[in-house]
Amino acid sequence: MTESRRGRPKAFHDKTEQNTIRALDRAMALLQALAGSDGMTLTELAQAEGESPATTYRVLTTLAQRQMVELDPRGQVWYVGAGTFRTGAAFLRRTNVVERARAPMQALMRATNETANLGIEQQGEVLFLTQVETHQAIRAFFSPGTRSALHASGIGKALMAWMPGLNPGPLTRFTEATITEPEALARNLALTRSRGWALDNQERTEGMRCVAAPIFNAHGEPVAGVSISGPVFRLPPDALPELGARVRAAAAEITRSIGGAVKS
């Protein structure tokens, strides 16, 4: 068997319906619906996915046997189960950047008193892997698995600045401050490269700022980003250069710990 056949058949590129499993696709859709909610009843899930309650229940009970979902009998509400977490955790084990980043992120949170975040690029978006939360009452929160648009994210812009071929897709507007013009985004990324850190200046959420820097592998390629995020009144403009330097130093420390090449 050739190398190209080991992980996929000849029909790998065939995405037609005959090459998919409807029952499996239905199960994945239910999991995704549950993952994006705080729990759903059988009726809510069936309506959301356009399936009958009987069909939805069969899928849920099958998933429950694998601990992928679980039912709270008190309110008859379904939730994502521990099996889903264990399966998802395997993704994090593909790289040691999460483990290596933990201590620098904790130090960054203590130094800035703001939440520290770690994210990567996946399928044209930022995927948040982990964070170290500040103890401040008002704080940013990105649960593992949260996604964000590249152009409206500190980590996203930090990655794009050193990955010229990375396509951010449509420049969707989230706030009045969101950069939606390609030329303006290009200028912003050039500024990011020149100073070594990126800024989300209320571009995704009004009242919140995020300062980020990229993490590089041994080939000098950005593989992740680290950031701090918090309300604008705790991240005023005159404090951003110092915060940027701290975030950049944390990113460099993580880069060295994974054997990466630190950019000057």
Automatic annotation (TrEMBL):
Name one matching Pfam family: HTH_IclR
UniProt-listed InterPro entries: GAF-like_dom_sf, HTH_MetabolicPath_Reg, TransRegBhcR, Tscrpt_reg_IclR_C, Tscrpt_reg_IclR_N, WH-like_DNA-bd_sf, WH_DNA-bd_sf
Q: Does the keyword Repressor apply?
A: no
Q: Which residues form a coiled coil?
A: none
What biological processes does GO assign it? Answer: negative regulation of DNA-templated transcription
Q: Which residues form the IclR-ED domain?
A: 83-260
Keyword line: DNA-binding, Transcription, Transcription regulation
The UniProt GO MF terms for this protein read: DNA binding; DNA-binding transcription factor activity
Q: Where is the HTH iclR-type domain?
A: 21-82
Keyword Transcription regulation annotated: yes
Q: What is this protein called?
A: IclR family transcriptional regulator
Organism of derivation:
Pararhodobacter aggregans
Query: From which lineage does this chain's organism come?
Result: Bacteria, Pseudomonadati, Pseudomonadota, Alphaproteobacteria, Rhodobacterales
